[in-house]
Structure formats: structure tokens, C-alpha cells
Amino acid sequence: MPDAPIQAFSQTVHQLFSGASFRVDNYQREFTWERKDVATLILDLYKSFSSSRKAGDGRKETAAYKPYFLGPYVYVEGNDNTVLVDGQQRMTSLHLLLIHLYRLLDEADERVDATKVANLIWTVNYGETTFTVNASERRDLLEALVHGHSYDLPSNPSPSVRNLAQRARDLVEDFPEDLRGESLLPFTDWLLNRVCLVGIKAESERHGWEIFVTMNDRGVRLAPIDLLKGHLIEMARLDATDLNTQWREMLSNLSTLGSRVPGEFLSTLLLAKYANVGDRAERDAVENAAHEWVRVNSDRMGLHTADNYREFLKVTVAKLSERYQSLVWATMNFTDELRPVYYNSITGMDKQLLLILAAVGAGDSESDFWEKANLAASFLDLIYIRKLVNGSVSKPADLDEDVYEIVPLARRTRSVGELRTLLSRYIVDLDDEFSGMSKFGLQPDNSRQVRYLLARITAFVESECDGSNEFPAYVDRERPYEIEHVWANKFDRHQVEVKTPQAFKATRNRLGGLLLLPKSDNASYNADSYADKLPYYFRQNMLVKSLSKHSYSKFPAYRRFLEKYNLKKIMRHYDDFTKESIDERQRLYIKMCELIWKPETLGFTVPRTLSPQRRVARRTRARYDVTIAELLTARLLRPGDVLIGRNKGNDYTATIERDGRISVPSGELFPSPSRAAMFVIDRQSCNGWTFWRLNRDGQSTLHDIRAKLLASGSLERSAQLPID
Fold it and tell me: pTM for the complete prediction?
């Protein structure tokens, strides 16, 4: 039989990108994926990888991990390149991911693997470099990304270049922390060899366009949301026309905020109100096939009769979709009514809508809805920031399990008072206080979080002094403010004070030595001395102005602000900015955080007579690693144990704390060995489990000690014991 005129070929990522050059043609030129699209792709890859991964797995084990299908693409073979007709969004995002992995591998000194990935990003023929996903307008940006250089957009960039630059910055922030340490190499192996795409070969560009139109405009399959609608309306039996009209109106209203919002609302509703959110498999079932989950779990949802289904559609879905629409709108707009919701959207607290919807009832009044939403959002903002500055977490996703634990309890609250009591109880049990942020500062991977903190502190001072609140401007990505170091990166200027380059770096990066400035101003100051910068500082926001003595005579509102909060002794001007100045400024920022995130001000009632209770350490299905806390519980490590590491001829030390965190000599605390290692060697990636050795025997790495626990078979038993 003759071959089919249209052929398809399955290829791994490694096969697809090896020696290839995909030309993005005119009708497919614009790259339009948003942050959520790229983040969803990365998260799906991470979840698939981690679902197969077990503690102790090495690189070879990834060869048997579950494969992942990334979808089809349409192409036409040319003389010296391949025309990419359909699939540009995924291929461009995958290209960005490979560039990011290359940078991480290069920083981790994994030269062999970095070179292997580099060969997938670009090819060199006759001395000319060609990027694998090739569009001439992107070349300068891609070169900057590959080499880790800064890139300024041209005055009139194309939508693709602007969007590509933004997605590259987002990818750095959204890339899972687990994949930057020990899992970096195994994940890279899995991505290259177990992730597949199917290429559909067209005879010509015109033919490829016809295939593209057929795939995207014809024979549209029913999505889970359509299947769910069909099932619910069928079970309701009566009022089908009215219910269908109501459903379409709901989808139309939600879709104004984004094409994904309707589906996200329904999965969030089911998770918030009915599902066992502590079970990862059940969460996946709701998110991937909501209609089937509802069919199987109708009794749990109280859907026994046709009347129950009609009530669910007419009241629960209808009313809560309106609430959800308000919440999503609040994540995009800085409003007085739901300001904490906006704050959480800036930090990336994706699970806030799940907790809010669990607490909100369809019958709640408008005022109760606002109050519950603000309480839930403020609670997440508070516990995240307090844990962040104490080194207990690094990203909002680290709180996901806490949210899953609270959601079933929030469901059972009826009044605002009951919700307040529930959340206040959790705040009482929170060990992390702002006093623990005395050494907190800028690290290789937390610029987004530091910028958020500085934006909140700056906005607080401004609003207290003149009533304005420029927080959205401080975090606006189109007109960015940047983190300014008061100390220029000149060790020789401060060597007498800090003695060593390592101490200089740690001190310079302390939060107390940082400010927020417009990008253009920040760049112009460059390596200026403090004395030279001080006149320019006086032209900036009130927090920056406070460094100048003129702020006291020129701004009476500022003096009143100092008196109101008793800040005169620690918020003052400096003629010379020394190490002691940074320490004092750090204490000022601690005080500011205590004022901004004061539980009583946020609406909580926190009795001071209660003492925190010990929480039971739990292992979750979402994680495959072993924690330092579990090694402490198994008595393979002891509090106070000293760790030693070596990189490029330099020696580093760290200490195991009682709660499983790791501290370094300059005082910073980290929740994992890899993050501590990244900090001391100033890199974006490092396998801390092999980097750190136990000083008392000088030989055993943390990897070796963990292997003993895994070999003993006692991991599950020890994980249930309380952590002292």
C-alpha cells in the first residue's frame, strides 16, 4: 500500500531539537502565551516528573519514568530549515525552558549536560549561529537570555519580543525550586528523553495552513466544562432551557476575565466545597475530568434528586460564579474592597481563591462576602510573609499543603466570626515572628519576594504620610521599579567594616540596605558612592527620602508619621551609610512589617496567653524527597551539627537548626540544603545534598546520610513523630 499523503512522526524533545531550525512564519509569528500558560506547562511537566520520582532515585531511573505527551505540531520541510505552521506557542515556550535549564546547568558547573542542552538551543554552521526556534527579531533577546546578560526592549518592540522577554523573566520566578537542586539533572534527562511531541508533515506551506485551520477551527471536541454542563442539566430534568441560558451567561461573564476562568471556577468550586483536597489524585481528577468526578461523587455533593441538581445550578453555581468573578477581577485591579486579594496575586498565591471560596457561602450577604474574602486573603499574606522572612518557605506554593489542611475546616464555618476564630487559631500556632528577619535579604532566587516586601513597606510609608498608595506602580512590570543597593558593589569601600567578600555580599544584600527606585534612576546611579547618591534619593519616594536630613524640615507629615508610630530612634537620616546603618535600617523594616501585618489590624483576634502547639510533620504525596527534619527525627543528624562545603577552592560552613532549617555564618536561614548551598556560592542552582558534608566525620554527605534512612525502611514511621 502507498504511504499516507499526510504523515506524523513521534519525537522526543532531544530528537526534535537536535540540529533543527524551525522558522516561525508570518501568520504564526506572534508569541502570545501569557504567564499562566507558560506556568501551567512547567507545572504539568513538574507534576508528571515528580509523580514517578521516589526518594533515592538517580539519573538512570528516569529512563523508566512515565512519558509525557506535549501535543502535535504542523511543519513543512524546507531546504535549510523547517517552517513551523502550528505549535509555535508550545515550541517557543519549550525553547525558553531549555535556555533556562542551560543557564542553571552552566551555573552548577555541569558542563557536559549544559553543552548537550546548548546544542538543542542553537546550531552553528559555517561560523553562523542559528537558534532552533528562529525569528530574526528575537535574536538579540535570545542571545541575552543564553548568556545571562541584561536586555532592554527597543523603543517599539513587536508583541512577540515584548511578550517573550516577559515570559523569560516569569519563568525564572515560576520554575519549581525542587528542580534547581538535586533534581536538576534527573529532570533534564526526563525532559529530553521522556517528553514527546508528534509532528504532522505537510506537503507545502499552503497545505500546512489548511491542516492548521482544520485542527483549530473544525471538529472541536467537548471540553470537560461542556460535559459537566450536559450532565448537570440532564440530571436536573426540568427547566433545561432556562438552565442552559443561565449557564451560557455565567460562562460569558467569566470569560471576560480570561478564556481559562470558567473552567478554573468550576474546578475551584468543586475542590473548595466538596472534594478531599488532601488527596492529590482526587485534586487531579477534579481538574482534569470534573464531569466524571461529579458523576461518581454526587452523593457527597448532596445531589440525590432533580431538585438538588436544580438548586445546585440555580443557587450555588450561579451565586458563587458572581463571587468568583469579583475575586478574579480583584486579582487584576487594586481596589479598596479586596486589596489583600490583589497583594496575593502579586506574590503568586494561586491557592487563595480556593480558601476564599471554601469560606464563602452562596447565601452570604455582600458585606459578609467582602469580609470573609479579606480575612482569608490577609491570613495567607500574613503567614506567607512571616514564614518567608524566617526562611521557612521560599514561594507561595510551599503553603499549598497548609491551604489543603484548612479548606475542610473553612467549609464548616458559617459566619464571619467563625472564620475569624479559625484563622486566628492558626496564627497563634505560627512560630515565625518578624523578629526572625534580622538577617533576611536579597538572595539569588528571591528578587520577586524582596521587591514585594519593599513595595509594601514603601507604600505604607507613603500612604501614612500623604494618603497616596502607589503600590501597583512599584510592582508594575511594564514600568518597573528595581531593587537599589545603597552600597555599591565595591568591596574595597567597606572592607574595614566587613573584613571579607562573603560578609560584604551578605551585608550589602540585607533588606535594610535596599530601596525601590524607578529602573531608569537605578541604572543611572550605578557605582556612585552614598554621598553622591543622597541628593538623588531626596527626589524619590518617602522611604528613600528619609535617608536625607532634609526630609525632616521639608515634610511635616513625615514628622507626624514618626511620632504616631514611635519611629524617631530608628527611622532617621544618615550622612554616611555604614554597616551599623544597615543593621538599624533592618530593625526599621522589621518594625514596619509588624505594623503592616499586625493580626489585630487585619481583623484577627490573637490571644497572647496561648502558646504555640507542636505540629506533626507530615509527608505528602506531592513530595518525593526527604527533609532535614526527618533526618533529625531519625537521629541521623543532631541540632547544631556543622556542615562543610567546598566550591572552586573556597570553603563554606552551615549549621543544622533544631527545626530542620539550615543557617549560614552570616545568619540567613534556609528550608533546604540546596537553597543554603546556592546562597553561599551565589548560584541559581546547586545540589545541596552532595555539596554539604557532615563536619563531625568529614566524609558523609547529606546524600549518604539520607541513603541510610531510606535503607532502614523507617521513613514512614519516623515521619509521623512530632518535631521537637
Answer: 0.86
